[in-house]
Automatic annotation (TrEMBL):
Residues 48-106 form the SH3b domain. The keyword Signal applies. It holds the Pfam family SH3_3. InterPro entries: SH3-like_bac-type. Residues 1-23 form the signal peptide. The keyword Cell membrane does not apply. It comes from Paenibacillus oralis. This is SH3 domain-containing protein. It comes from the Bacteria. Keywords: Signal.
Length: 109
């Protein structure tokens, strides 16, 4: 009888920690892109001919031009240079990351 009790105790103590390791029903796992999205904002360009630059500077290489209504994602990094606040953004139009002066951006989400 004691032997059966010891075996049953060992089985229970082995299984209890394992059952707690599984996720609860109805939970979902966030993907990497979801996590990135949570930490960023959506922006709309509010002027025509806005320069998307390679660096946060008025003298940074121009990667492309943006126009009123173009959508960008970013905002996780900002820098002040040349007296201007620059925002790191991803341009869906150009498919690249770059920098835009914050005065040309309106946060939309």
């Amino acid at each position: 009888m004691l032997k059966k009790f010891i075996i049953a105790s060992l089985v229970v103590t082995t299984l209890v920690p394992v059952t707690g390791a599984f996720a609860a029903e109805g939970t979902t796992n966030a993907t990497k892109s979801d996590l990135i999205r949570i930490m960023t904002s959506d922006y709309e360009v509010n002027a025509d001919g806005v320069r998307l630059r390679a660096s946060a500077s008025s003298s940074g290489t121009v990667l492309g031009l943006l126009y009123k209504g173009d959508l960008l994602n970013g905002g996780r990094e900002q820098k002040v240079a040349d007296g201007i606040t620059w925002v790191s953004v991803y341009s869906y139009k150009h498919g690249i990351w770059g920098w835009v002066a914050s005065q040309y951006l309106t946060e939309v989400g």
